[in-house]
Amino acid sequence: MTRPEVLVAHQPAYLPWPGYLSRLLDVDTLVLLDHVQFAERGRQHRNLIRGSGGVPQRLTVPVLHRFGQRICDVRVAGTAWAAAHWRALTCAYGRAAYFADYPLRAVYERQWERLTEVNQAVLDVLLDGFGIKVHCVRSSSIAPEGSGTRMLADLARHLGRNVLRVGTGAMRYLNHAVLAEAGITVEVATYDPPDSLAVSAVDLLMRHGPAARTILERHGQVTAVTA
Fold it and tell me: I want to staple 74 with a disulfide (CB 3.0 to 4.6 A). Which of 14, 78, 115, 185 is the partner?
């Protein structure tokens, strides 16, 4: 059952991890926080796949950016990376049972100008593959006021939401007084992976196909935070 009252907001991520997707299973909208500052060491342009011998392999989209630049303004540097990433994905999953079932190759055959465009294209393949039907909204199109918790509260106001769903890391910085004043309650989404390899959700799709969604459902959990 879809819960339209829930706000899930997350920075755009390249080849996002399963927990990124598991928190979307019962919502109808994902707000992509593309108006916030790009973090060079973040997952906005890099992530891990299952490499040779099961060892995690990092794939990074090279970008052109300056300090303090918004994610939505970050440009992709060159085109050679796409062929290299596709070769890595083919080496990692080319023999996987469901490798040919998802149109991921098309992402790497196009030329991209902005990082957000690459991330959206990859996310679209993953959402469709996992059977997750959400509408993606870019925060830059809303221009919320404030930062941190106040920004999230303003997004909730714009979209008419009264429940904020976050990951465990967000609990360190949330200002619960601000949320309470806005009439917003909090849920924490967790994901306990079936193995110890913390890699992209692409791994689940390629190896498990239609059963990948069931794995997300089985290993993801949402808990309401009580005052």
Answer: 115
CA atoms within 13 A on the CB side of 95: 5
CB 130 within 8 A of CB 22: no
Evaluated on CA atoms 102, 196, 53, 110, the torsion sign reads: positive
Query: 218 in a domain, yes or no?
Result: yes
Cβ atoms 5, 148 nearer than 8 A: no
Cα angle for residues 151, 157, 163 (degrees, 5° grid):
90
Tokens of residue 40, six digits: 């060079």
Residue 92 in any domain: the answer is yes
Q: Scan for tokens 């005052």, then name that residue.
A: 227
Residues 6+ apart with CB under 8 A from 88: 49, 51, 57, 59
Q: Under a CB-based contact definition with an 8 Å cutoff, are residues 51 and 57 in contact?
A: yes
> How confident is the model over 184-200, as pLDDT tens digits?
999 999 999 988 789 99
Q: What is the pTM of this model?
A: 0.95
Per residue in 54-76, pLDDT tens? 899 999 999 998 889 999 999 99
1 falls within a domain: no
What is the residue range of 154's domain?
6-224
* Residue 69 belongs to some domain of the structure: yes
DSSP for 71-111? Answer: GGGPEE--SHHHHHHHHHHHHHHTTSTTGGGSTTHHHHTS-
Counting the structural domains of the chain, the total is 1
Interatomic CA distance for residues 48 and 25, integer angstroms: 22
pLDDT for residue 227: 61
